[in-house]
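Lab meeting minutes (informal)
Scribe: AK
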Amino acid sequence: MNRLKFSVVLSWDDRSCRRKGTQNEGQRGTKCHVLDRRNSREERIVGGDDTGWPSHEETDVPYESIDQRFRPGTRVPIVCVPFSPSGRTIPCGPPVVQAPAQECLARVTWVTTMRSFEGQPRTQASLRMDLATIGVTHGMTLLVHSSLSSIGWVVGGAPTVVRALLCALGESGTLVMPAATPHCTDPATWTSPRLPEAWLEDVREHLPVFDARTTPTTMGAICESFRNWPNTLRSNHPVESVCARGVAAPGIVSEHPLAFSEGPGGPFEKLYNLDCRVLLLGVGFNRCTALHFAESLVDRRRVKTSRFPVLENGNRAWVDVRNVADDNGAHFPAVGQQYVTEEGVRRGRIGDASSVLFPMRSLVQFAVRYFKEVL
């Protein structure tokens, strides 16, 4: 279904602003404008000053239902998305301004992103050049952790990035990405969103069982685009699945044990044995799953218990399995920084995204030594 997103356009002034009475150093006050699409003039409708900020929600409704939802005389929210010159959204409160629906449709700019358009648009050709410069070559097995927003404005969005990666690897290469689904676990353990206690029983009862064909991943737009790519295969783990496409893909995803899913016997051990390369595309080592594999090899590894529903003989059942615990920034960034300093990696930019490329085996061996000392 096509969706129409629209929000007001903001301009920055020179005044500092306060939010909840606390000075925000280095941030600017805002003035909120909407663009009148009929005559291309800006009109100020909401102001931001040193006592408060405008709201930041977006209105996102199905295109097909506009006529039904926005009937003449209906009053709908006009909402604001404050953003900094770097394109980062600044969190504010709920929408508070309302206007007649017809006025809203006439004046509000519909947008797909709220970012500045500094620099050049990123294309498949420019991304392929960047990938080649950092060291991605034909025939490589490549595990990618990524952030689309860090690349800059990409013509065609996430699918363009996937095409660039596949072209860089060629027919003899293999592309691999995580396809984790933390929303398939017990909702009592969720942190984003953290559900109300009163909801937990109903959500737990009706939570869908993981389906490798249809369950989306929460690992970002690039990973989700790759999951849906023709001939992409996916391992059958309810929480920590992996997607792969290419000559080595069937072997990588064929087995994925429920317990210690990022450890021996699963896709990450196979990637280790293949001596695949890891590309951190606009993300840090806190996103690097190879470090979970490394920790799984250590006797004093940190452990958690995950609970999720599975199908057993056609019946839905909840299972509890052990896995390597989340790092939450405790060690992974430090391991990564030491590894980069002592071992060396290929550094570069893919679009605007600071990126590093390195052998998985080298990182894992380094990290095992680290974890043996500190855990």
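Next up, CB showed the second protein from the same session:
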Amino acid sequence: MQSGYIQPLTPLYKIAWIWWLILVAFQRTIYYENALQWNTFLSVLFVISIITLFFLIRQRRFFTSENHLFLSKDFRFGLSKIDLRYMTSVKLNKFSFEFIFAGKQYHYMVFGKSNQLLKEILEENHVEYNHTKSKKTS
């Protein structure tokens, strides 16, 4: 069993980033409106924004075993078991990995050795995937 790291890029995850930015902007606005005075409300907002940032930036682990891919779940102790034989629309490029499994679309950001591991496991299991290189503009 091998493992690597992924970062989700689902629409819900992107919305969470937008709300985090709104929270930080709100905190900064309140700070300036209070004539640069720090208070309890701002402290609570600061703690909430730090905790939220931790959950947004922490990387999720994935594990590969024979013809299965195991993805960690947020806020739960458990793994999603994905059979590589039933994955469709698989796309793997330099920074992202996306596929459809059981009607649900998965989209992750993947770097370095984790990307190589996914490429190897897809090739070992004869999964057809699109490998696109990033476009360079001149």
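CB comment: The longest strand covers residues 2-8.
No objections, moving on.
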